[in-house]
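Backbone-to-sequence.
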């Protein structure tokens, strides 16, 4: 390209700018796999006292939902844990009610601590226990309450970044605090089979997996499936429970999904890129798209996780790679 040609091109670029046009051949953006967000770790030991403090500082009534949002440090101001997912830690004290509302984003809860709390989804009231995975499909009415005598903590996971991306976020409060209960679930009955996935069932399934099904990266890993549809429990989010046996030394892996992990039991080491994270029970970790990672566990570990894999697979984008060392 001659210099005169390049200055003409420069002039051309300036001339088309007011018309909101730009040359694709000069585009700076890197169209490569990987994410704007970074790996991040929230130690429950640090978060737990802060949840307690928030109880002292703000009433449930004023807070609506008393949640500490886990925001990715490289997405400040977004309130998102990754480009595609939202996650928060919610605490509800005995006697408190989180009033009924509904919204476009799909939501899930993973029960961390305490007994006696329920969530009600379109009038199906479900008691939740630690290790339970519960879903609130988009635009279903939901309120929560704590009828027990202990604080209850769970992790919320939502696909809010999708509704932001599409400009499709609707939200409505129910005129009363509590949506009329039409059914109180017995944990494993038909009304709630697609909404609550109890801890004991997850553990049972994991413990029945033959050694031949142990994955070199993920250990024993199961994906939650809605028994009524045979599909993932939500339209965008896939959820998993995995067990790393004692002494597990995982191979390195990456995939295009963003994953949020919550250690349900035990502890492990997670290496992400060049960083090493020590994950204790109830710790949360986010692993961004295409970051190589591997698990090491001297202890036994059971890990709940959710990711955007479901949406990526539906749209044909998802890829994974087992990396050879
Ligand atoms: O409990 O319904 O963390 O609507 C964020 C949005 C929790 C909830 C969150 C919500 C909820």
């Amino acid at each position: 390209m001659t210099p005169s040609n390049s200055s003409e091109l420069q002039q051309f670029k300036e001339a088309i700018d007011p018309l909101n046009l730009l040359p694709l051949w000069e585009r700076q953006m890197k169209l490569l796999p990987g994410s704007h967000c970074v790996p991040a770790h929230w130690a429950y030991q640090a978060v737990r006292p802060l949840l307690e403090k928030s109880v002292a500082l703000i009433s449930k009534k004023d807070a609506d939902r008393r949640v500490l949002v886990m925001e990715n440090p490289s997405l400040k101001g977004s309130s998102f844990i990754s480009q595609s997912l939202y996650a928060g830690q919610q605490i509800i004290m005995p006697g408190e009610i989180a009033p009924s509302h509904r919204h476009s984003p799909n939501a899930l809860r993973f029960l961390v601590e305490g007994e006696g709390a329920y969530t009600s989804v379109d009038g199906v009231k479900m008691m939740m226990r630690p290790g339970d995975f519960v879903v609130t499909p988009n635009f279903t009415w939901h309120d929560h309450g704590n009828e027990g005598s202990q604080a209850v903590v769970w992790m919320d996971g939502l696909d809010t970044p999708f509704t932001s991306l599409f400009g499709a976020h609707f939200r409505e409060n129910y005129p009363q605090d509590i949506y009329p209960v039409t059914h109180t679930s017995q944990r494993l009955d038909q009304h709630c089979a697609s909404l609550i996935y109890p801890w004991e069932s997850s553990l049972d399934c994991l413990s029945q997996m033959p050694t031949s099904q142990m994955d070199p990266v993920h250990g024993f890993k199961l994906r939650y499936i809605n028994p009524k549809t045979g599909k993932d429990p939500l339209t965008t989010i896939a959820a998993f429970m995995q067990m790393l046996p004692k002494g597990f030394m995982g191979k390195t892996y990456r995939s295009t999904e963003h994953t949020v992990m919550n250690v349900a039991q035990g502890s492990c080491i997670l290496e992400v890129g060049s960083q090493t994270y020590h994950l204790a029970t109830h710790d949360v970790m986010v692993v961004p798209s295409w970051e190589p990672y591997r698990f090491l566990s001297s202890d036994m570990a059971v890990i709940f996780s959710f990711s955007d894999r479901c949406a990526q697979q539906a749209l044909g984008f998802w890829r994974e790679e087992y990396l050879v060392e």
